[in-house]
Design brief:
The complex is a heterodimer of chains A (279) and B (356).
Chain A lengths: L1 E8 L9 E8 L4 E5 L6 H8 L7 E6 L2 E2 L5 H7 E4 L11 H6 L14 H13 L15 H14 L4 E5 L7 H16 L4 E5 L2 H7 L2 E6 L2 E6 L1 H4 L2 H8 L3 E5 L1 H4 L2 E5 L14 H8 L1
Parallel strand pairs in A: 3-8, 3-9, 6-7, 7-8
Antiparallel strand pairs in A: 1-2, 1-4, 4-5, 9-10, 11-12
Helix pairs in contact in A: 4-5, 5-6
Chain B lengths: L1 H44 L7 H13 L7 H35 L12 H15 L3 H25 L4 H26 L5 H10 L7 H20 L1 H8 L2 H6 L4 H23 L5 H13 L3 H25 L7 H18 L7
Helix pairs in contact in B: 1-13, 2-3, 3-8, 3-11, 3-12, 3-13, 4-5, 4-6, 4-7, 4-11, 5-6, 5-11, 8-11, 12-13, 13-14
Classes of the chains: A alpha/beta (279), B mainly alpha (356).
């Protein structure tokens, strides 16, 4: 489905948050989670996969077709994107927001017609949020907004889904709900790539994990092999324990260690000195 | 039996959803069209020379189908030659300014934007003042104000290409800068103008008026305004996509550079065409979009046509007032604000905002 070979991209003057020598491939129904610290190049890589930025080297092939040779709307008919949540400028109704997903299927002067509205309606129905149809998007809760964004991307009818930190800014319950939707989408055969800050989310949803640091893949493979205590310390600089609680919750978890204040690697803050100076 | 009742329920639900989401736009549009037609006829009736509404309809009917009329020739002269151009101008200028305002607010994702944001008005004002000083001929003033408006927006666009990063923000900043520059040029023209004829002429031009609009003006500026408005209305749904944010719009396959270019060109052409026959009329392009959003919500599919109709109605109404409210004509730019501001504040106080 998706094959990425030797991909590389850098913003001008070799700043951070570019990436290089990225190689991976993804098959139908696989969920790939990209873990890595802020500024490691995760989002930049997503933008290249979306065709928003042009690769400076290497290739991205979608179903055998070279991405750089496709038009922007052709890419948008294949690749769906769920960006990080943000407020639109005007309080569009949920239905109007979802309809926007039809954009790559419509001509420059075309407005969505009955058929498009029907597709948007059934997307809302599939996610059981039909009752939100006429509400202003701006007045929804974070979880509801993310569900509407899912409906929008379904309306786009993509063959590959990219998500940039889909669980950020969501409460605990909504995070779980979103991951649930991700799993169900993958079960229908949709390949998904998502970036995340939570190794647990990778264990919960993913069949492949890539860990990134300074624009390079340090490791790539199934989560059990990639999310190790060593690897996590390498990319995040903190000590963690990875535990198999399969018989309790059905997957592994990754937890940071408590109380290593005396550890020489721990960054110390000098609060006492701060308070002493203040008085 | 079960299936039929279920089917009825879903049908009912669908109909209800359809009614709440779409029909409000259609019905608002219909009501506004009717109001505009009534106001259109009524606008011929008011004025110093009395004409009955029936005579108005007869005269227009005869003019459209090229029939013989049995009415006094004065009626025809007043209706067709004096009042018709002015009424059409009010409708076109009102619609143009509102459509440009709505499109720019959508393009820049900001409800505080007016059609002047890229320097159209300052450029047109400078051009008109230059025309008044070097020639004083009506056609020269119009042509120079039109060119001035295009030059100002062209410069804003050119400068924004140099700004790195966010194109939209760059365009707004460049527009503000160019606007100030042309305002300074305008002041220079005022300073250089002779105070007996030219300075008052510049001042009156800047207050806006449809007093001097004739058939010729409509023939020259009507077509560009209609074409610009039509293109913007045809592509209006894309503004919804763009309102999601530049990057998201691009991810949805939209060519945002092309879209921005088309919107800016169309808005500039219709605003410049309007301003060059009417002078500066503020407030319409900023506030009519808000009133439109209060009526039908922010979706541009409904909002843009509704804005066009609202703007036409508002400006025609205000222009009628300008004609009859006092012995002397009041400049229209003054009345749009004096009538428009309290009305807008009243709507604000009622809490029907529609942008948040």
């Amino acid at each position: 489905m998706l094959v990425v070979k030797n991909a590389c991209f850098h913003y001008d003057a070799g700043k951070n948050s570019g990436f290089e020598e990225v190689n991976f491939s993804l098959k139908t129904g696989q969920v790939m989670c990209v873990l890595g610290p802020n500024g490691c190049g995760k989002t930049t890589m997503l933008k290249c996969l979306l065709g928003l930025l042009r690769l400076q080297g290497g290739s991205i092939r979608l179903d055998g077709q070279e991405l750089s040779q496709m038009s922007r709307s052709a890419v948008a008919r294949i690749v769906g994107y769920i960006p990080q949540l943000h407020q639109p400028a005007f309080p569009f109704s949920v239905l109007d927001t979802v309809l926007v997903g039809r954009a790559p299927h419509l001509g420059f002067l075309q407005s969505p017609g009955e058929k498009d509205i029907e597709i948007a309606r059934s997307a809302l129905e599939a996610l059981s949020i039909t009752h939100l149809s006429n509400k202003p998007f701006t007045q929804l809760s974070g979880g509801e907004k993310q569900m509407v964004t899912f409906a929008r991307v379904l309306t786009q009818r993509p063959a590959l889904l990219l998500m940039d930190e889909p669980t950020s800014h969501l409460d605990f319950g909504n995070q779980t709900m979103v991951l649930n939707v991700v799993q169900q989408l993958a079960a229908t055969g949709m390949p998904i790539i998502m970036t995340s800050h939570f190794p647990d989310h990778a264990f919960l949803t993913s069949s492949k994990v890539a860990i990134m640091k300074k624009g390079r893949f340090l490791d790539f493979g199934p989560p059990e092999k990639v999310i190790t205590e060593d690897n996590m310390e390498k990319i995040y600089g903190v000590k963690v324990r990875v535990m198999d609680v399969n018989d309790v919750v059905g997957y592994r978890v990754c937890l940071p260690l408590k109380n290593h204040l005396n550890d020489s690697n721990t960054q110390k803050i000098n609060l006492e000195g701060f308070y002493a100076k203040k008085s | 039996m079960d299936t039929t009742s279920e089917c009825n329920v879903t049908k009912h639900k669908r109909w209800k959803a359809f009614r709440t989401s779409n029909l409000s736009g259609v019905s608002a549009g219909l009501i506004l069209v009717i109001v505009l037609i009534v106001l259109f006829i009524f606008s011929f009736v008011i004025g110093r020379y009395p004409v009955s509404p029936i005579d108005v309809v007869k005269t227009l009917w005869a003019a459209i189908f090229n029939l013989e009329i049995t009415l006094p020739p004065n009626v025809e002269n007043v209706v067709i030659n004096l009042r018709l151009p002015r009424i059409i101008a009010a409708i076109l200028v009102g619609a143009s300014l509102s459509v440009a305002g709505t499109s720019f607010q959508g393009l820049f994702r900001n409800p505080l934007v007016s059609p002047d944001i890229l320097g159209v008005a300052s450029g047109a004002g400078f051009g008109a003042a230059l025309g008044i000083i070097i020639s004083g001929h009506g056609l020269a003033i119009q042509a120079l104000s039109f060119v001035g408006a295009l030059v100002a927006v062209g410069l804003s666009h050119f400068i924004s290409r140099v700004v790195k990063g966010n194109q939209t923000l760059g365009l707004i900043l460049a527009g503000i800068a160019i606007g100030s520059l042309f305002n300074a040029f305008l002041s220079l023209m005022k300073y250089a103008a002779d105070t007996t004829n030219q300075l008052p002429a510049i001042t009156y031009w800047l207050m806006g008026s449809l007093n001097a609009v004739g058939k010729q003006d409509i023939l020259m500026t009507g077509l560009p305004m209609l074409i610009g408005i039509t293109i913007l209305i045809l592509m209006r749904w894309r503004l919804n996509v763009l309102a999601m944010g530049e990057e998201e719009a691009m991810a949805l396959g939209v060519n945002t550079d092309l879209l921005r270019g088309v919107v800016v060109v169309c808005c500039t052409v219709i605003t410049a065409s309007a301003v060059c026959i009417s002078g500066i009329i503020g407030w319409v392009g900023l506030v009519i979009p808000h009133i439109g959003r209060m009526l039908v919500g922010p979706c541009h599919r409904k909002l843009l046509p509704v804005s066009a109709l609202l703007g036409a109605i508002f400006l025609l109404f205000i222009d009628n007032l300008c004609r009859v409210i006092a012995q002397v004509e009041i400049p229209i730019g003054i009345l749009t604000a004096i009538i428009g501001v309290p009305f807008f504040l009243y709507l604000l106080a009622k809490g029907r905002r529609g942008w948040a």
